[in-house]
Amino acid sequence: MDPDTFRGDVGVEGPDVYWRRRVSVLTGALVVVAVVAWACTSASGGSGPSPGGHHAPVGSKDPGSHASATPSTSQTPTATSTTTGKSVASRPPVTLTPSPAPSRTRRPGDPCEKADLVVSLRGESEVYSSKGAPRFLLTIVNLGRVDCTVDVGPRAVEVRITSGDDRVWSTADCVSGDGTDVRRMARGVPHVRMVNWDRRRSAPDCRAARPKAHDGTYVAMARLGAAKSSKVVFHLR
């Protein structure tokens, strides 16, 4: 191009018009280059699989991913009964125990229970001379919760003296009258009675002779029904 012509165009149109035309031409060239490059890339297989990559077909499911996404549930078999539907293994055996009979409430003045009575006997001495008569202190105590009544007469309460297997004497022999003595026993308050022995033998038959007991060792014991006192050992001289 002629330099004068170049300078003349600039001088006639002005610098602004000149540079706008050049920028438009340059921009159009860049757009054409970008379109050609994009078309080449698409034609070379851009829609195909990338190297080293793997694409599952559309609509298919990965079995591994499906299994990992679904939570597993463990199930434990339980033993069931076909009749009741409850667990048979966990049901304890049934043992039928008869209900105890209700105890009757005791009232004050009722007869004493044998288990509530305590009988004790204590001798005045361990050795008695030829002129001494043995004496014993008889005590009966009610340990129940309420006051009760009991026969403490000579027929019900017996003090017996023995020597080995020999029955020597008893307060139940030759009792005059009905021999009953019913007392109301307060809880913990003892009934006390003195029992004397004249050192002679006795028997249920009041007509029998009553000879004098020999010197030796004897044993005394009190009894009220099933309640018994401890044995009292003493000697006659």
Molecular structure report:
- With 237 residues, the chain is of the alpha+beta class.
- Among the domains are: 36 residues; 127 residues, Immunoglobulins (Immunoglobulin-like), CATH 2.60.40.
- It contains three helices and twelve strands; from the N terminus they run H-H-H-E-E-E-E-E-E-E-E-E-E-E-E.
- Strand 6 and strand 7 form a beta hairpin.
- It is rod-shaped, with a radius of gyration of 63 Å.
Query: How does the major sheet shape up?
Result: 6 strands, mixed
Q: How many strand units?
A: 12
CATH superfamily placement of the domain at 110-236: Immunoglobulins
Mean pLDDT across the residues is 76
Looking at the structure, the CATH topology of the domain at 110-236 is Immunoglobulin-like
Low-confidence region ranges: 1-12, 46-74, 76-88
CATH class descriptor of the domain at 110-236:
Mainly Beta
Can you tell me the overall shape?
A: rod-shaped
Query: Judging by the overall fold, what is the CATH architecture of the domain at 110-236?
Result: Sandwich
Percent of residues in β-strands: 25-35%
Structural category is: alpha+beta
Radius of gyration over all CA atoms, rounded:
63 Å
Q: Give the helix level as a range of percent.
A: 10-25%
User: How far is it from the N-terminal to the C-terminal residue, by CA?
Assistant: 178 Å
Topology order in helix (H) and strand (E) letters: HHHEEEEEEEEEEEE
Count of alpha and pi helical runs: 3
